[in-house]
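Margin note: ligand = succinic acid.
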Amino acid sequence: MNIRTTTAPLTLNREYASFEIKTLTPHIGAQVLGLDLSQPLADSVVQDLHKAWSDWKLLVFRDQHIDRTQHKAIASHFGQLHVHPMNLPKAQATTTATATQNNRAANEDPEILKVKTTGDSPYTAGDAWHTDVTCDPIPPLGSMLYITQTPECGGGDTLFADMYLAYDLLSDPMKNFLDGLEAIHDGAKPYIGAYKSTPPEGGYPRSTHPVITTHPETGRKVLYVNSGFTTRIKGLAANESAALLDMLFRHIDSTPKLYCRVEWQPGTITFWDNRCTQHHAVWDYYPHSRYGERVSVLGSERPA
Ligand code: SIN
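Resulting structure:
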């Protein structure tokens, strides 16, 4: 049974001078209409994109045709580009079959993360609820994914979750309990545990972040643990930490009103705010193939 949400009614902005939007849900996801991202973007358009991104957390652009240089240039409007830990030079010369699946050869173009799944893939990247690279001390603030091949059988959608709403829906006693707690986010969990990849020199990053963060631009509170990277709540006994994380991950898994679902077409670009969202790539298309490339924007401050 569903209990009526007790959070305040949403009054997000829908008017932008540079473009129109079509919203995907009342609170997360907006398709930006009529923009050709292969063309230089005026400052006023970039400002409106930033505003719309801040309001809607996830922007979707259809029918785009860009190359890697353009992809990086568009993302660079939002900050310096991030290099994914799986694109860093490997600690050993040998690479496992799984580590090479995405052809993430170091230095080939380290700011481009290939997202490639075929019938031979042992995994698909991002096939669990996660926020990108929260193992980094300063995780990427946003990610821009350009999909150019979709599975011929259909499917391969991505779910996005509104982590402001995930926080808002917790009870006040639970909010009070979580406030002030910190959690460990460990890159070894997905990259070695799930993907069996060879770590970079020095190993994959491991960082501690607050369980509840405040978005540096909107000032809204966010539930900031994710099943992809978060391994432990500091200061709790192991069984207490496991039970609490399990409850929070289930809260995300079992609350459909948090979600927006993006159905990709070749030429779709999405740009999401990692500081207030999680996402989950759905691998329902085996043995068919899907391909895209992601560029992420470096954050400027630790989550707080
Ligand atoms: C990711 O960035 O986690 C991959 C998302 C996707 O492939 O849809």
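Residues 115, 125-126, 143, 145, 158, 279, 281, 294 surround succinic acid (CB under 6 Å).
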